[in-house]
Amino acid sequence: MSTLFEPLSLGAMRLSNRIVIAPMCQYSAREGTPGDWHLIHVGNLALSGAGLLILEATAVSPEGRISPFDLGLYSDDNEAGLARVLQAVRAHSPMPIAIQLAHAGRKGSSRAPWEGGAQIRPGEPLGWKTVAPSPVPHGADEDPPEALDAEGIRKVREDFVAAARRAARLGLDGIELHFAHGYLLHQFLSPLANQRGDAYGGSLENRMRLPLEVFDAVREAFPAERPVWARISATDWVPGGWDIEGTVALSQALKARGCAAIHVTTGGLSPAQAIRIGPGYQVPYAQRVKADVGLPTLAVGLITEPHQAQAIIAEGEADAVSLARAMIYDPRWPWHAAAALGAQVFAPPQYWRCQPHEFKDLFTNNRFGQR
After folding, report:
1. What ranges in the chain are assigned the alpha helix state H?
2. N or C: which end of the chain has fewer CB within 10 A?
3. Phi/psi class of residue 346: alpha, beta or left (left: φ > 0; alpha: ψ in -120 to 50)?
4. In tens digits, what is the pLDDT along the chain, a chain of 371 residues?
């Protein structure tokens, strides 16, 4: 059997293969509530045959959104809208579905990427004052965020807990906490963004405090039999920033608290980042976490070809591969990977007739006849 198509367990959640659909923001919600676009988008990905679908970064509060059109899970309307999407998708796909809970911090109040992605300043239509560990803006010419005080930090924790309880009611199979890509919890981790002098800043232990408190609170609020894990940027790609050593220390602390996996990515905190891009360029960071921590790791970053993904798993560099842009470009990527690697993959019966003649056993449980 292809190692890419071997089952994998994240806690008690079993994946039929090791292809994960990474979170991908759609900037298409209204006041945090998904509509028809999400029904089409999530439904399409859920028929791909991947082992796990992680819903896009979902804000735990209105001010935690990246843009005014981000998905949220902070209101009854948000919950009802997502329930509609999940009910439709689950009627036709057995794929486990997790959600990435997030708070954008100082990277909030932004325009959608196709509108340029620039900050919307407070007072401008649809804009708001952002919050962060310290009043340090993401870009030098941007409106600086408001530093969170003790009450603000308490509210962040409570907002994550409230969203986790909504996720539990929705029956979501797992929660990924967003500690990456320059958003709020990553901002607390990185000395480039965190210049506090209290218990939440300074030393590595202090900078890890809020992310670990959030993890503990969410883990307690979410059913014990369903996994909770984190996505971490392993480096800021900026000298003096967050790095792989901190990532290993954080991952070890998360492991001790019952974290089910580490989803390893990089960057996003600073416009000064100097990323060395190439095929699989982030995989070595996942390999380091896997070797030093011993938790299941998900690798991401220009993983585009089936044999490339297979090699990452077969050589022990990671336990699963996580695809984002490649899945949007080719929503049947797992089908094509299974065909290339001689494996089988799930497809709904409505699609069984499309199985190519040369791949007679591509779809699991495939049978078809007609008069």
Report:
1. 36-46, 76-90, 150-169, 184-189, 204-207, 209-221, 244-256, 283-293, 306-314, 325-329, 333-341
2. C
3. beta
4. 799 999 999 999 999 999 999 999 999 999 999 999 999 999 999 999 999 999 999 999 999 999 999 999 999 999 999 999 999 999 999 999 999 999 999 999 999 999 999 999 999 999 999 999 999 999 999 999 999 999 999 999 999 999 999 999 999 999 999 999 999 999 999 999 999 999 999 999 999 999 999 999 999 999 999 999 999 999 999 999 999 999 999 999 999 999 999 999 999 999 999 998 999 999 999 999 999 999 999 999 999 999 999 999 999 999 999 999 999 999 999 999 999 999 999 999 999 999 998 998 999 988 777 77
Question: Of 298, 303, 297, 347, which is closest to residue 325 (Cα–Cα)?
Answer: 303
Is the model's pTM score more than 0.85? yes
* 176 residue type, one letter: E
Tokens describing residue 29: 């919600």
Cβ atoms within 10 Å of 371's Cβ, excluding its own: 2
50 by DSSP, 3-state: which? Answer: coil
* Burial annotation 224-244 (CB, 10 A radius, 16+ → b, else e): eebbbbbbbbbbbbbeebbbb
Distance CA 200, CA 192 (A): 14
Q: Within 13 A of 215's CA, how many CA atoms are on the CB side? A: 28
Catalytic residue among 74, 183, 200, 285: 183
Q: Would you call 329 a catalytic residue per the annotation?
A: no
Q: How far apart are CA 229 and CA 206, in angstroms?
A: 20
| Tokens describing residue 125 | 């239509």
